[in-house]
Amino acid sequence: MLFDRLISRWTLGWLLAALGVPLLLLAALLVGRTLTGGPTPTGAAAGPVVTGPAGPVATDAAPTPAESVPAAAPAPDDLPVVDYEPAPRGFPTDPGSGDLRPLTEGLAPTRQIAAYDAPGGRPLAFLAPTIRDVKLTMPVVDHRVGWTAVLLPSANRRIAWLPAGGWTTVALRDQIVVERRPHRLTWYRDGRAVKSWEVSLGRPGQFTPLGRTFVLGRTPPPQAVYGGVDIFALGAIPDDPGAVPAGLRGAHIGLHSWHNDDTLGQNVTNGCIRLTRSGQRQLLGEVPAGTGVVVVDELPAPPATA
């Protein structure tokens, strides 16, 4: 210490004998000023100075890339391919099923890619670039380092995790929100309500499934009762496939028109969403495949277009 360099033991003993304790205390005070470069703080005890926001302090080195990106296990060649039929089991539940925030990014496979149950988890199925010759675009719902989560087609409220590679992304501007209690469908673009329509929805036992899904693709109307307007097939399927009529087994939930508007505002369908023919034509002309669709009981406040 600096104090030891300035005063020897002999000198310290002489000072104690000649001047006594008061001078020793004064010397100690002077040494304290020399060591600290200023007066001793008064008041509250001194502590660490926080110059940034409070929060945990990182003490470990940054993870290596191998630690940051969970490796994708090789996918067996005999995994099923997700098609129009119900998707294989085992995929995780969509944690944001009722989230009303628009999904603004779509993912389109460019080759057959493996779908996993978690980042670095188990491969459960393959996703192909098309389903029944319709190009597949799935909304992106989450990102992790090296992994992307999408809404799974041919399933309700399920997601799949995909490693990097074998797909491209597209921007999504639109969203469709369906409210079961007021029987209302609202089309949004860039987060703003464009137009609302009264709709018919699923009857008891075949209710229109709640949660997030998406526009899978469009198909011509198979019968005259659909009003001669193309149908949007959604990624969702009936919650209880066995409850629908035998002729509709294996079908997806659809968004379509009807030959008349007599049942608008009622629960009369097999789970599908019916709106006017003019409304269906407008959506067909504006809304691309991959657009997110969310079905809720009721919005906290009616949209401006209601």
From TrEMBL:
Keywords annotated in UniProt: Cell shape, Cell wall biogenesis/degradation, Glycosyltransferase, Hydrolase, Membrane, Peptidoglycan synthesis, Transferase, Transmembrane, Transmembrane helix
CDD domains in UniProt: YkuD_like (cd16913)
Pfam families per the UniProt record, alphabetical: YkuD
Catalytic site positions: H256, C272
Spans through the membrane: 12-32
Top-rank taxon: Bacteria
UniProt pathway: Cell wall biogenesis; peptidoglycan biosynthesis
InterPro entries: LD-transpeptidase, LD_TPept_cat_dom, Transpep_catalytic_dom
Domain L,D-TPase catalytic: from-to ranges: 174-296
Start and end residues of each stretch annotated as Disordered: 40-77
PANTHER family according to UniProt: L,D-TRANSPEPTIDASE, L,D-TRANSPEPTIDASE ERFK_SRFK-RELATED
Family statement: Belongs to the YkuD family.
Name of the protein: L,D-transpeptidase family protein
Organism: Micromonospora sicca
